[in-house]
Amino acid sequence: MSKRPVVVVGAGVIGLTVANQLQSSGKYSVTVAAEQVPGSLPAGARESTRWASPWAGANWRAWSSNSDHVLQDMELQTYEKLGELADTSPEAGIQRTQGVDYFGKLADNALPWYAAKLDNAKEIPAEQFPNPTDTIYGLCYPTFIINVPVYLEYLKSRFIGLGGLVEQKSLSHIEESLLLFNPDTLSSMPIVVNCTALGSRVLGGVCDKQMCPVRGQTLVVSAPEAKRTITRVGSKFDYVIPRGDGTVVLGGTAEVGSWEDAADPNTTQRILRHALELEPKLLPQSMVGRPESERMQALRENIISVNVGFRPMRKGGPRLETESFVDTKSSQPFTVVHCYGHAGFGYQSSMGYASKVYQIISAL
Ligand SMILES: Cc1cc2nc3c(=O)[nH]c(=O)nc-3n(C[C@H](O)[C@H](O)[C@H](O)COP(=O)(O)OP(=O)(O)OC[C@H]3O[C@@H](n4cnc5c(N)ncnc54)[C@H](O)[C@@H]3O)c2cc1C
Predict the structure, then answer these.
(1) Are the C-beta atoms of residues 216 and 252 closer than 8 Å to each other?
(2) Which pick of 156, 181, 238, 297 has the fewest CB atoms within 10 Å?
(3) Which domains does the chain have, with CATH numbers?
């Protein structure tokens, strides 16, 4: 049986996860087309901030609210699949670890939904909070860290290994995706998956003005003893995400609407100070009890890079729906499945969303 051709526009974690799921089914022959592709840079060059995926932490730490059952489902499905990958494919860069969350307030005084869903999730006693003045509740639970550069490369290599094609190409209009199909296959209704994230703001035919950047400044430091991933929300927003290779991502900021790609030195100082409060193991045991200024200086010396990335937020939530198009030049009809707008939860919901896209396409 001949495979149905599909073009996926976008090679971030969403596009590549969708492409892998479709290609591995054996029913589709998939081409990924994207302006930025993992590993397309010369050695040592800095990643572009025009895509989000290389700049994430990343960990699994649920961002869905207690009432958002759709996103909860996406995150839970991904949680299960990250577990399978961690256990079977060490080359993917995913590892099991302990997650620790501190909350400055609880919406409607209700515990976060995942406290009851994840096996072995446990409340942290108040005497163990790093700073009782900003925390009213703490939770620890088994979770995953994702070494983002390794995982993106894994997704790309696996896709190519399955026979998928990757083309580095920028589209100015969604109609240009038709040029990526073999003309002989255009008689059936072509299917395009739009995973362009913030690119959807300006991509012709889409121009989604609900898309908005959420700026995140982070530091990557060398800290081989830090193993847990820790997040603090409320009056502060801080996180510590080990990558499992001796480096750790420290954050953060969440500045809605900001396109500022220069790092702010005051934010860097604040990230260092708060991270040391959350995780003393960022420094060797010999630094315990040393004055804060010395500890800050020691951690500053371990900085590998200071980074800025832009989370692709969509007001109203991610867009997952089909749209019918007719090419203005050739009158060729085609179907676009939109899947973008995953803000700060793209990694931890990626496999759930890819399954949804697969179901939608299977029914077309
Ligand atoms: C600081 C920071 C920390 C984060 N931490 C986490 C975390 O811990 N856990 C988590 O789950 N998520 C985290 N995220 C969020 C996560 O990174 C994003 O949700 C995810 O990367 C979005 O993936 P994407 O594939 O939708 O978009 P992108 O990675 O932005 O990919 C978009 C793709 O579309 C392509 N494209 C765009 N326009 C065009 C065009 N016109 N033509 C061709 N190609 C185009 C781009 O080149 C790129 O290949 C974090 C993000 C940041 C910035």
Answers:
(1) yes
(2) 297
(3) 4-362 (3.30.9.10)
